[in-house]
Structures are given as C-alpha cells and as structure tokens.
Design a protein that fits this description.
Number of strands: 23
Structural class: alpha+beta
Number of helices: 18
Oligomer: single chain
Strand order of the largest sheet: 3-9-10-16-13-12-11
Distance between the termini: 36 Å
Strand content: 15-25%
CATH class of the largest domain: Alpha Beta
Radius of gyration: 27 Å
Bound molecules: glycyl-adenosine-5'-phosphate
Helix content: 40-55%
C-alpha cells in the first residue's frame, strides 16, 4: 500500500467508523475544517486528559488555566502577530491555486534529500557490512552533485526567509523549475505575505466597534495571566502554566486532513525560568516531551528532532518533534526557548510591571520562557495512523483493527450477549449498568458475535465481554482481548478489576 493509499484509507475509516467528519458536509463541506464524531470525540478527550495529567498532575510546579479565545486586541500587537504572523504565498496563474512559497521550496529540498537517501540505500545493499555511509556521501560523484545543489539552494532559501526577501523567494521557485501540481505550469505570481489571523468585530456598529482576533495560539492567554497565576498560586520560579484550547489560523493549504486545519486545538505549556537557565530547561523539556510521545507505544523511529534553521526573532533555541505522517516527517510539537520576549513586550504595551522577585538572588527580573506546544489534532492523527492495522487471520479472513493504547481508546469495553433472548440480554444490560460508572461501555446485541467483534476491532475497543448460557449457571463470562484475540473465562465479579489494571494511566505515565 502506498502512503497516498494509506492516507485515503485513514480518512475513509475515520468517516465510516464515526471518528472524523468533514464540517458542514451536507453543504459540500468547509475546507480544512473538521468535526469530531462519536468515537473521535472520546479519543480526542482522552488524549487531552493524558496530556493534562502528565503535565499538570505529574509536576508539583505546573498549574493549568483555561483562558478566553477573545483577547484584548493589543495582545496581538504586543505578541507581534499583527505585524508578523504571515505566510509567504504564491499563486499559479493557470490553476488559480495558492501555495505557501516556503512549503514549495521545502518539498523541493526534501525530494533531493530522498534521492540522496535512495543512492545510500542502494550502495549499502551492494557493499553490505563494509559500507561506510559518511565516506560514500562525501565521495560518490552523483551524491556529491545532489548534495552541493541541495546545500546551495538551502542556503539561498534560508537567507531569503531570514531577510524576508520575497523577490528572491519567487526567483528560487523559478530557478528550481518548480511546477504547480495541478496545472503543471510555472506561470507564478509574485510572492506576497498573508496574515493568518481571523478577525471579527466586537460591539455593535452603532457603538464604537473594534476589531478583535480569534487567537492563533493559546500561549498569549498564559502570558497575560502570568502575574495573576504567579501571585494567586504563590508560584516560585521555575514553574509552568499549561493550557488546552482552540486556536484559529486562516491556512490556505488544504487537503492535509487533520494536519493543517483552520480551527484546531493546542496543548501548550509555558515554563518560566531564571534568565540564563533557559537553555538547560530547553534540553530538559525536549527530552521530556519526546518521552511523552514514546509512552504512547509508538516507536522512536517514527519521530525525528528538527532543529530550526531560521529562529524567530524572539527565540534563542527551537526544535520541532516531527512525526512520520503519510506525507513524510512533519511537525507534531514545537519546543521553543522564547527568552523574555513575550512578557517584556506585554510589560511595555500594558504599562504594568511584569516581573518576578527572586528571593534567592534578592533581585527582580522578567522571567525567561521555555514553551512546549503540541497540536491535539496532529496527535490524534498520529495515534490513529499508527493504530490502523489490516491483519490476515489464521482462518484466511481479514480484519481491520485500531490498536489504540487502551487508556486512550474511545470505548473501553463492549458487552455482547451471545443471543438476545433466554435472559442473556437482560444479564448483559445488568453488566452494562454495573460497569458504566467506571468505563465508557457499549452494549451490542445485533448480528453474529464474529461481526460484532470486527466492529469493536475497527473502533479500537480493547476488551469484549461475551455473555452466554454458561453465564446463567456459573456467573462467568468470556473476555476477549483486541490485540491478541485471546479469550479467557473469568468470573463476572472480576471484570472491573482486570480492566482497571490494564487501563491505568499510571502504567503509561510512569
Ligand atoms: N505557541 C507556539 C505555536 O503556536 P506552532 O508551531 O505554530 O507554535 C504549535 O504551533 C503546534 O500546533 C504545532 O506543532 C502543531 O501540532 C499545531 N498546529 C499548528 N498549526 C496547526 C494547524 N493549522 N492545524 C493543526 N494543528 C496545528
């Protein structure tokens, strides 16, 4: 199966099994906006809960808040979003499609990197154990040619971005002979900057209405509350403030499913530290956050660190954790050392002193900040994609199973009476009633037991309980495990204990 086919399968499965729907689908949908369906919302809530617990409950010095989406418009002046939250866009005059110029260039560079990697793989196979990767890359004429080309284009690209040189960015696209994937032509407009923030009016027109913005990141809600939280929580540096919430960006590039949306959710944490200690904490959070991803059971090779070539003007270190999505390694989380830029800027624009008195140093300063910022939707996509498995079974049949970590699974337990008579259905309802306080359960009595197992596999339910005629005599049921399909006979009274143990957050968080 190609990556493209796999991508289509995930989207189709998400729709068929009630995870994700296109927004306003009956009106032909709204581009890059999605709704979470009955199973999707459960998975999404569980991801948020897992992050919240691992950040807020697991650290003595991190607290959470939930700030409003609407904020005073000066917030966005102070943060730099009004002046600089732009993407360089270019249109193809024939297809009338709009692209991010920097993404076109990045994709071009990735293609050259892929070519180098292919040559390396071929040679590694040819030479076997004696293969020396570094030596090959620095001496093989074809690879050297690719690499020289790659490095010189990359240098020019980074320079154009750093200097905001849109003319050279356009020229690079022309020089690299990049074509529009739709029209196949190189008939490009100039590159222009587009601000990504959505705006609206607050107040009626008769009053003095002012332009306000839908927040493009949740971080600013944390910065403007820094003083309130520090004082009311009597927080001592180093400490963190975490928040989960919606963010909005007028993204032009569509058709990337949950990867790039106009309305999405972020889980962000700002960690306030002493000036000069930020790079130590930056390293600490980099490792911590990678470990969080690995705790989901996804292997290390699915992740990469990507160190930023071009640092934002406020950052003195920045790294992305990238995940291997169906369209390649892309950012899932950003870790940024944001210096004192945000707090100092809010101090300047608000006229309020935003400082911390450090009793150990006996001095006041504007704290430095290390930020961890992860997208809920990209995490959802990564978990769903990794969990999706098509399996050939011993009896020759096939199944699609979502091997979602049990504590994140939308439905934890399905209760399945073998037939819906002879009192088995009543007993099933009773088991459901007993367990519903502790787990999200599903009662299902329609179709053959085999079909019901497949339905539960397809939504990732880790446990199925089957009630049969023996249950009426000896109070035992069959518990079936999703991943192994193994079945065990257990006493009804033990269901809760067995499942609770396997769903414990503690196991994963530790
Ligand atoms: N406060 C820092 C910040 O917002 P960012 O790299 O722009 O940094 C952080 O965004 C995370 O938010 C990304 O790593 C990604 O997971 C998620 N994200 C950003 N834009 C997104 C979009 N259009 N759709 C879905 N997720 C997005």
């Amino acid at each position: 199966m190609t990556q493209e086919e796999f991508f289509k399968k995930i989207i189709a499965h998400s729709k068929e099994y009630g995870f994700v729907f296109q927004s306003s689908e009956i009106y032909d949908g709204l581009s890059a906006v999605y709704d979470y369906a009955q199973n999707g919302v459960e998975l999404k809530n569980n991801i948020k809960q897992y992050w919240w617990k691992s950040m807020v409950y697991m650290h003595e010095n991190i607290v959470g808040i939930d700030s409003a989406i609407f904020m005073h418009p000066t917030t966005w002046k102070a943060s730099g979003h009004i002046d600089a939250f732009n993407d360089p866009m270019i249109d193809n005059k024939d297809s009338k499609k709009r692209y991010r110029a920097d993404v076109l260039m990045e994709e071009f560079l990735t293609k050259i990197e892929d070519k180098i990697e292919k040559e390396v793989e071929k040679a590694a196979k040819r030479f076997g154990e004696t293969f020396n990767r570094e030596m090959f890359i620095s001496t093989n004429p074809r690879v050297v040619e690719y690499k020289t080309k790659h490095d010189s284009i990359k240098e020019r690209f980074v320079k154009a971005l750093t200097n905001n040189d849109l003319t050279d960015l356009k020229q690079l696209i022309v020089d690299c002979e990049i074509v529009c994937p739709i029209s196949g032509t190189r008939n490009w407009t100039e590159v222009r900057q587009f601000n990504l923030m959505f705006s609206t009016q607050m107040g009626s027109l008769s009053e003095e209405a002012s332009t306000i913005y839908l927040r493009p990141e949740t971080a600013q809600g944390i910065f403007v509350n820094y003083l309130n939280v520090q004082k009311t929580g009597r927080m001592k540096i180093p400490f963190g403030i975490a928040q989960i919430g919606k963010a909005f960006r007028n993204e032009i590039v569509a058709r990337q499913f949950l990867f790039r949306m106009k309305e999405f959710e972020q889980m962000e944490m700002q960690f306030f530290v002493r000036p000069g200690e930020e790079l130590k904490w930056f390293e600490y959070w980099k490792e911590q956050r990678l470990n969080w991803h690995l705790s989901l059971g996804i292997p290390r090779e699915k992740y990469k660190f990507h160190v930023h070539d071009k640092l934002a003007h406020y950052a003195n270190a920045a790294v992305d954790i990238e995940f291997e999505f169906p369209f390649g390694f892309k950012e899932i989380e950003g870790i940024h050392s944001r210096t004192d830029f945000d707090l100092s800027s809010h101090q300047k624009f608000s006229g309020k002193k935003i400082q911390y008195f450090d009793p150990e140093l006996n001095e006041s300063y504007v704290p430095y900040v290390v930020e961890t910022s992860i997208g809920v939707d990209r995490t959802f996509f990564s978990i769903l994609g990794y969990a999706y498995n098509e399996e050939k079974l011993e009896d020759g049949t096939e199944r699609v199973v979502l091997k979602i970590p049990p504590m994140l699974a939308p439905v934890k337990l399905a209760i399945l009476p073998l037939i819906n008579k002879d009192g088995l259905d009543e007993l099933g309802h009773k088991v459901f009633s007993d367990l519903k306080y502790d787990f999200n359960c599903q009662y299902d009595e329609k179709d053959s037991i085999g079909k019901r197992y497949r339905r539960q596999d397809a939504i990732g339910t880790p446990f199925c309980i089957t009630i049969d005629h023996d249950t009426l005599n000896d109070n035992t049921v069959t518990i079936r495990y999703r991943d192994t399909m193994k079945q065990e006979r257990i006493d009804i009274s033990r269901i809760n204990e067995i499942i609770s143990d396997k769903l414990s957050f503690k196991t994963f968080l530790k």
